[in-house]
Amino acid sequence: MDIHIVAPEAGRDYPRNWSEFLDWFGSEEACLAYLERLRWPRGFVCPNCAVAGEPYRSSRSRLMCRSCARQSTVTAGTIFDKTRTPLRVWLAAAWYLTNQKHGVSALGLQRVLGLGGYETAWTMLHRFRRAMVRPGRERLNGVVEVDETYLSITDRDTPVSTSVRKSRKCRTHQVLVVIAVELLQPKGFGRIRLSRIANDSDEQVIPFVQACIEPGARVRTDGSAAYRSLSKLGYDHQRTVMLGSTVPAHVSMAGVHRVAALIKRWILGTHHGSVQPAHLDAYLDEFVFRFNRRRSASRGMLFYRLLQQAVATDPVTYSDVVRPLPKSVKRA
Ligand SMILES: [Zn+2]
C-alpha cells in the first residue's frame, strides 16, 4: 500500500475550509471523482484482475475494466459500499468528525447533518472508525511506557430509537485497557496504542506489547510480574516497583496516566460516558487516530487521511457493526 508517500497539500488534495468544501463537493459526481482519485491515485486498477488502465465508464458510477470486462464502482469494497446515504452527506460527516477536536457523538452528528435517523448517524460513525486503523502501521519505538487502567462505561450507546433508549436501564461496566505511550526526549509524548484486555495476566499483555512495540525498544512497566518475559523477548525492560515507593504512579508512569485521563475525559465528554462495551475497541481506535494526529497542522489533513483509509478499508455492513468480530478474526 502506497498511501502515505506523497505529502498532501491543502487546497489541492483537501479543502482548506468549509467554504472550499462546499465548492468542491456540490454534487455526487464531484464526491465520486474525489474518492476515485484517493482510491487510485495513479489511475484505475481493476479490483478483479489488477490490470491498470482507464476503464470504460458506462454511467456516472459504473467502471468497466478494459482487460477482464468486470464492472465495479469507486465505492465497492470500501466503507461506502452499498450505502443509501448520499456521498455528499458522508463527506460532510467526515469533515465534521475530523474538524471537531474531540470528535462527535452519533446524536450530535444526526443533529448537525439533519439525518433522519439516529441509526444512520451511528452506523456512519462506526464505519469511519473502521477506517481509522491504518493497515500495516508501524510499531512504537524508543522509550515506551506500558500499563493498564480501568475505564468506566455505560451501555447506552445502541442504535435504537430514542424512546427505547430512554426507557432502557443502563448498566455501568468496568473494562480493563492496556496503554502504550512513546516518551519523547527531553519531554512530551509520541504515539500511543490501546487495547481492551480481559485481565492483567501475561497472556493478555505480552501479545499486546509484541503487536504494538518494536523489539529493541525500551519498555517501562510497573513491577507487575505479567511483564517479566519482556527481556527474553528482546525488549530493554525497565521495571519500576511501586509497592512501598514514595513516588506516586502518576509521576513514575506519567505518560500512561496522562493518556488514561484523556480517554476518560473524552468518553465522558464527547460520548457522555455512554459507550457499549462491545464497541469499545472502535472508540479506542478513534481515540488513537485523534491522539496520534493531534499535532497535524491542518484539520483538513485529517479529513484527507480518514477518507484515504476509508476507500482502502473493507466494506462493513450494518450487522458487522452491531456484532463486531473479534480483532483476531480475519475479515473475508
Ligand atoms: Zn479487470
Structure description:
The protein is an alpha/beta fold and 332 residues long. Helix content is 36%, strand content 15%. It has a five-stranded mixed sheet with strand order 6-5-4-7-8, with helices on both faces. A hairpin with a 6-residue loop joins β2 and β3. The protein is globular and about 70 Å long. Zinc ion (ZN) is lined by residues 46, 48-49, 51, 65, 67-68, 70.
List keywords for this structure.
332 residues, alpha/beta, five-stranded mixed beta sheet, three-stranded antiparallel beta sheet, globular, binds zinc ion
The total strand number stands at 8
- Topology order in helix (H) and strand (E) letters: HHEEEHHHEHEEHEEHHHHH
Oligomer: single chain
- Helix amount: 25-40%
What is the makeup of the main sheet? 5 strands, mixed
Low-pLDDT ranges: 325-332
Integer-rounded radius of gyration: 22 Å
Name the shape in a single word: globular
Binned strand content: 15-25%
Helix segment count?
12
Which ligands, by name, code or SMILES, are bound? zinc ion
The average pLDDT value, as a whole number, equals: 86
Major beta sheet, strand line-up = 6-5-4-7-8
**Structural class, judged by helices and strands?**
alpha/beta
Q: Could you tell me how far the N terminus lies from the C terminus, measured between alpha carbons in angstroms?
A: 18 Å
Quickly describe the structure.
This protein is an alpha/beta fold. It contains twelve helices and eight strands.
